[in-house]
Batch of 2 targets.
Target 1
Amino acid sequence: MANETPLTKEAILDAAEQVLRRYGPDKTSVTDIAKFLQVSHGTLYRHFASKAALRETVTERWLDKCVSEPLEGIAAATDGSAAVQLRSWLEALIQKKRLYALEDAEMFAMYSAVTLEAVDLIAAHIDHLVKQIAVIVERGMHSGEFKPGEADAMARAIFLATTKFHHPAFVREWSSKDIDQDFDAVWSLLLAGLQ
Amino acid sequence: MANETPLTKEAILDAAEQVLRRYGPDKTSVTDIAKFLQVSHGTLYRHFASKAALRETVTERWLDKCVSEPLEGIAAATDGSAAVQLRSWLEALIQKKRLYALEDAEMFAMYSAVTLEAVDLIAAHIDHLVKQIAVIVERGMHSGEFKPGEADAMARAIFLATTKFHHPAFVREWSSKDIDQDFDAVWSLLLAGLQ
């Protein structure tokens, strides 16, 4: 083998991400990734049981790095209006999704496919995001800006009620001329429910 | 031609619906529908410019008959609580979608496909439903049960915020054990926003 650095899981995922971006999720095989790493097929299968497992792990890491972690910064702020913070958090989520759909189209396409295939992985990602919303809602309840209530249930409701604006099934509607006005209408009603 | 009754648009749509239910939307051709009606291919094309146009008109009629019209009855009621009426309306919409997904699977599959293809048709169907919600919201505002506000924008927000529970992209999630609890969470937040 030409490649003498030890083959870590991270190195495989880095390679897989590069190859997936180059060929697209449908056309990339485990063999393509093995070739890129200059290792055998079997070596890769020692780390990932199947192509599906590899795709899912790449998607999971991409969602953490490109969605959950940047949003964490917004959710962690502890000053200013919770309503403004919540709207910023939702807009950041929505903008990220729209941006990746255009500018990281291959990874976005894989994420769309994995959303249908890997229910548990996506449920865990959503739980992570809902916890961030709950932190903001709790802060708003604590300061008296929001009515008291069950922050976790409200956070989940906020995520679900904005599905149309961040779920990849609606990617084609995100370029509609009405989409921002529609988000405003939903946001106003949700905010009225919180205050 | 064996069939001597005049070929009305309704008769073609009735036949198309039967044939589509039998073979499924992907496997049904215009020829299958022509054969069923014992007319030529060309006769059908005089009424519908393309297979897509025929599928869309069948779907439009199915949505009117099976979704919009039955819900109209709920929206038209003028007594009792508007909140109870609104929840009944939403639950009826959700139950209808779940029922058709299971018991009228071929028509539901066609509707799912048409949702992606025929943006204007679906937008008109949604406008129709949003108008029904607006009637309920206005009644609630008028009676003082709901806060004053823009009933049309609120109605659209309510429809959009419940997307996950009635849009065909989520059909596989409707059998999840959490789906009713999720609807309750969204409903509570929306109702708090209205009251």
Note: Chain B has two domains: 9-47, 54-194.
Target 2
Amino acid sequence: MTVEIVTAAVLVIGDEILSGRTKDKNIGYIADYCTAIGVDLKEVRVVSDDEAAIVDAVNALRAKYTYVFTTGGIGPTHDDITADCVAKAFGVPLDFHPEAIAIMKERLAKSGGELNEARMRMTRIPRGAALVANKVSGAPGFWIGNVITMAGIPAVMQAMLDEVAPKLKTGAKLMSESIRADAKEGDVGTELGVVAKEHPDTIIGSYPFLDETMAPNTNIVVRSRDAEKLAAAKAAIEAMLVKVRAQLGAA
Amino acid sequence: MTVEIVTAAVLVIGDEILSGRTKDKNIGYIADYCTAIGVDLKEVRVVSDDEAAIVDAVNALRAKYTYVFTTGGIGPTHDDITADCVAKAFGVPLDFHPEAIAIMKERLAKSGGELNEARMRMTRIPRGAALVANKVSGAPGFWIGNVITMAGIPAVMQAMLDEVAPKLKTGAKLMSESIRADAKEGDVGTELGVVAKEHPDTIIGSYPFLDETMAPNTNIVVRSRDAEKLAAAKAAIEAMLVKVRAQLGAA
């Protein structure tokens, strides 16, 4: 059985993230979302509002992964240049999009405000792109090739992700099990490495934490696309932990 | 007067960030820190615990920026491969480091625990690197060339950053002023673009938000390394806002 692996990257665009002024909330959200629907998020980049940086990142990432999700830079001001950059990356013109204009007009009829030059910026869409509806604030994102361009404001980005998710190819979900080691990471690391080598179709991660007594403890997470292999690795880790804890207790 | 621009990138290493299991807290912290000390954070990447991905990212980023800060992947388990990858990126061997071993022994004498194979992993340092002290939990980071490798646990990373910060070259600080527009972003965008063009030595960003009455509002942030140019741009924006708000009121 061949299991298709569907991969993705996130490209966060904005000076405000790199200056620290705004703390990104989209990376973790998209990461959880991808895991839930069976898409492997493989890379994230954050770049500034700089044309060359954005174009280079879009082209590098779209060549490597099934999907690229961009966030940020699609508002009405001079520093919102994501649409320009995606168009440039794909070598297509940036057109005023009739449907985007109609959406903006309908919104403005309700909320008040003029369809001025600034707001018209938000109706510029790379030629050939499909619109991604924005049920929160109107101005749409878009989808061209394997690149999905969304807003930076978390509530808007989340609504856009809900719009595109049903249309994404998804792979077999990576299932996971979490095992509390009740031991220090340094005390189980050697043996855990042996288990990891013996279970090559699983991904085993080790994450230290301080438990409720403030003692160093470890969570071990096993992930696999195969339920049987996942269960076998989990059982091997639990057996290893029983052995190691007994040795530590006896020492 | 030539002002030196000191740049940096952050490379976050870890499957747990990309799966969503762990939400990164280091990017925003390092971003604030860089802004405070006069280092321009230009790019962030997050990659998985994969040798090729880490080596490629280290080499791409160290060629482009003054400094590269890596976080994550320097613990005692098989999935901690950052030291291996940085050594490979620099083409140097990874040695057991006598000072790192001494630090680990001293720690373990107090906390209990054996200097086993897993913990010895944490004493492997790329040849030629200087250690970065870890006042929180002992196991050091390191600094080789322009790459500074730190832990992923926020408290440990923060302590390591405090260790290296006094030794970093820093540039002229980017000063900033924030101006509340009391207008919708779409109503000020066109005029703000004109001001931005007239003040090329400043960086002007526009950030929509919902104010205390839940009305759409806008924060405008001006940044510059030159206090006079910053003040001039701020004054120009305030004058523009007075004019635009008067027009909107009259409409």
Note: Chain B has two domains: 7-167, 175-250.
